[in-house]
Amino acid sequence: MLNQFSRTQLLYGKEAMDHMAACRVAIFGIGGVGGYVVEALVRSGIGALDLIDDDKVCLTNINRQILATRKTVGKYKVDVAEERIKEINPDCEVRMYKTFYLPETQDQFNFADYDYVVDAIDTVTGKLAIVENAKKAGVPVISSMGAGNKTNPAAFEIADIYQTSICPLAKVMRRECRKREIDSLKVVYSKEPPMRPLEDMSISCRQHCICPPGTVRKCTERRDIPGSTSFVPSVVGLIIAGEVINDICEGYREKEMQNL
């Protein structure tokens, strides 16, 4: 029967679509990168999504985040995402966590529940905790490296963390993964050297902070407030989503072949 996923089914087949509908994917961080991961996964037919993000939509998110519009400013990103998901696929099961993922909050999550894990946060301690917990649970995980301060979307590629270079975040992750004896980690990264953002006080959050009242983690706490474009985080998110879908379908096919 014709449905919203029929064009996808022409490529993957009905059995793979049924498998995707039975899968649960966790997306940690649903901002510039993670929001596009969510968008592509729900449009691909993934049947259950866990959304983990404690942030609210800010006016400055509108240039790059699919969940950010004038209408959604001030709302929790997970609430906006759930509404959007249900408009695309009412049957998709959504679990929301208004939580900033760190080692201190990791006990809220059972990684064994997931068929795939996406790390789209930018805190190294949180990223490492996600990777370690996914590895312990035997769940595939993919991690986004630095997408801020870059302007070339064509420079991003999929690699193992130990095959990366140039990216400052990947450098830190390589070192920390070695310390923890993590032998591999699939990442999306770019060899484009990051730009140093301008310190323009006329448009700087340092001088004109508009974070909603009660915001705990303000961008002004960073050494540099990163610049970003509409077309870099979106591409990273779509690359990650494509890898998730293809890995899930490939894993399904391999399992079916073993059962023959």
Task: Characterise this structure.
- This protein has a seven-stranded mixed β-sheet with strand order 3-2-1-4-5-7-6, with helices on both faces.
- The protein has helices at residues 6-12, 14-21, 34-44, 77-88, 124-137, 168-179, 232-259; strands at 24-28, 48-52, 93-97, 116-119, 141-144, 156-160, 186-190.
- It is built from seven helices and seven strands; from the N terminus they run H-H-E-H-E-H-E-E-H-E-E-H-E-H.
- Helix 2 (14-21) packs across helix 7 and helix 3 (34-44) packs across helix 7 (232-259).
- The protein has one domain (8-259): Rossmann fold (3-Layer(aba) Sandwich), CATH 3.40.50.
- The protein is 35% helix and 13% strand.
- The chain is globular.
- By secondary structure, it is α/β, with parallel strands linked by helices.
List the helices and strands in order: HHEHEHEEHEEHEH
CATH superfamily (homologous) name: NAD(P)-binding Rossmann-like Domain
Q: At CATH's second level, what is the architecture?
A: 3-Layer(aba) Sandwich
Strand order of the largest sheet: 3-2-1-4-5-7-6
Tell the overall outline.
globular
